[in-house]
Amino acid sequence: MPDTGKLLVGRRILLVEDEYSIAVEMERWLIEAGAKVLGPVPSVEQAVELIGEEMVGLDGAVLDINLGEGETVYPVADRLNELGVPYLFTTGDMRIGGNPAHRERPRLAKPVLRAELITAIANLLHSQARTV
Amino acid sequence: MLKRQQVLADFGDVALRSDDLDGVLNEACRLVGEALGTGRAKVLEIEHEEQSLWVRAGVGWSPGIVGHLRLPMSEHSSETFAIEAAKPVITQDIGKEERFDVPPFMKEAGVVALANVPIFLPGGRPYGLLQVDDVRPRDFDDEDTQFLRTYATILGPVIDRLLLARALRTTEERFRLTVEAALDYAILISDPEDRITDWLPGAAAVFGWTAEEAIGQPSAIIFTPEDRENGQDRWEVETARKEGVAPNVRWHLRKDGKRVFIEGSTRALRGPNGALLGFLKVGQDVTERRRSEERLRENAARLEVLVGELQHRSRNLLGVVASVASKTLGEDGAAAAYQARLKALSRAQGLLSEFGSDTADIGALVQAELAAHVEVKPPKVLVSGPEVHLTSRQVQNFTLALHELTTNAVKYGALRDGTGQLAINWEVSRSEKGRRLALTWIESGVHLEPGQVTRRGYGRDLIERGLSYALRGRTEYVLGADGVRCRIELPIT
Predict the structure, then answer these.
(1) Predicted ipTM of the assembly
(2) Of A36, A119, B71, B252, which one's alpha carbon is 20 to 30 angstroms from that of A109?
(3) Quick one: pLDDT band at residue A1, thresholds 50, 70, 90?
(4) Using the beta-carbon criterion (under 8 Å), do A18 and B470 form an inter-chain contact?
């Protein structure tokens, strides 16, 4: 396993995931990589609320596409697009719907492993830093 | 006298030849005015359930009266008086008339003398009045009166015949318009040999043959070749002949070879003596509805296969995951707990597929989980609650929580051995916010070993945080003096 020890120190990451077991697991991985986690939250409503309350600003987000019972995370993605916050999707599904811009975003297939998640977020933040 | 007989004969001719009530009534007025030398006469028809009189026909009156004027049929009018008298009522000089009131328009027109002759329809129902007016004072003598009586007696049946003919024409016209406008319904009539005699516009619209093409053909032209081969056409008319009616719900053939689905029936038409006159076939073209129903059925069947396949695959996948885990991690310790959790998930998946929908009954979930570990029977284990279906999302989380409670009880609690007891109850409550499920898990008679009280494992975390996380549930978990007490509350649909 590559060393993903402290790649995300001080980074503020929003985590949207409806499955509790997966959510707490990812939260633990992010915290151990040095990140400050917002959430996890299981729904669009709660995610949008968190984004609204966040004064300092987000560095990135991990979004589970299918939030169960027909709900998808795209409205959260749209909001993050407006704010210029980079994000990646996690999904068990191969299709990406909603705004075509969503298809340009990195995507991790479930089950997501610790190393790939941390590396993908680190890359996301790095490329964002370059483009700004 | 001869002149008057001539008038009656002339009127009889007109009445026999004409179908036009207004024409006949005007001619009647002309003839009677001429015969009595007044030049004036009119017919008043009773309207609106005897509330008014309409000047329906007349001669010698200025424009605006005949066909237009309506009089109230008051109690003291000359008209009411004559109908009650049921015979001609003569007024020699209306200025001296004291028995009743004469309508003002008559006085204004200079009428002085007046004969009011009631007209009755066969059966005695009053139709109205024939009025002969004169602007000079005159005495209608006995001969005049008798003539007028005879005249009115002939008028009654003539009017009756023309009124009935008009009502019949209206009904027939309405019937024809209705049937011809019913383009969504194919309507045809065939003779006793089932040859088409009437082919209405709806039949032409649905089957594509024109009336000229269809009339004279056997009804079987609209049957499919398969149905003709099976004798379906003959079965249908035979059934209608024997039982009065036969259903006709099948695909039919159009002139252009396309098929239309018809829902309808074939009825035997019989005369008053019971003789078979032919068959009436009425059917609605429901091809579009039929096609969409077939598509829906196919889709539903495909979906069912797909759902079955998905459930099969997800259970298989769990099986593969379990075997990979045992190869990778072994079968002891943490690996065994992992395997048991997978097993619980797999059981829940099985119950979901069993119900044929994406829900599972909470009682079945509880029984399945307990049965995997212990014998579920009183007094050790008591389970009760109504049938409540959980969604697939709830099932997964609920099953894991239930599994943690159960394995915990098997290891340390009520299900281990000895005197421990477990009671599981659930109920549904309703409020403005919707339905909520409340389940209680109560263990008793458990002797806790020191050191276990502070244990906060995966299971307890799942119950206390996991259920509220995605299912908006509320949970309480208390490790009491003689066992675990847990309460789980979830909103349900």
Answers:
(1) 0.76
(2) A36
(3) very low
(4) yes
